Amino acid sequence: MTKLSHLNERGEAHMVDVSDKSVTSRTAIAEGFVTMEATTLALIESGTAQKGDVLATARIAGIMAAKKTSDLIPLCHPLAITKVTVDFTPSQNPPGLHVEAQVRVAGQTGVEMEALTAVSVACLTIYDMLKAADKAMTFEGIRLVEKTGGRSGTYRAAAKPTSDH
Description:
The protein is of the alpha+beta class. The chain has one domain (about 25-150): CATH 3.30.70.640. It has 4 helices and 5 strands, in the order βαααββαββ. The longest helix has 19 residues, at about 110-130.
């Protein structure tokens, strides 16, 4: 079994020392999907959601979340993130939104957690903006899609089956 880097020799949680790691360009892409009723998706697409522009609000929330990841996840390093994008693709079958975040940094540790946090908070914000219309929304498939840079190199997740979003 691989040694867990966030545990010291006594099994106690600690922040990993990255001071000896090289500064490299690192990127992470994460995704998720918010399922919703077709009528709820129509509110987003028509711009008539009661609370306002759902996608603009969720985009800003995702970007802010990526920047605050080290405040939310106890052992994450604070990073000087150089770029965050949060994008949405509507789906009619099943009805909902595909959410994708990309995060970049020139640093000593990766930005996987920042990308995953951006997607998660964007999904939560979509729910918050639309919960009056559709309390049954769900989040699915939040995962790391790709990461580049660092000692471990490139990772790409396996493609999802075409029946998934």
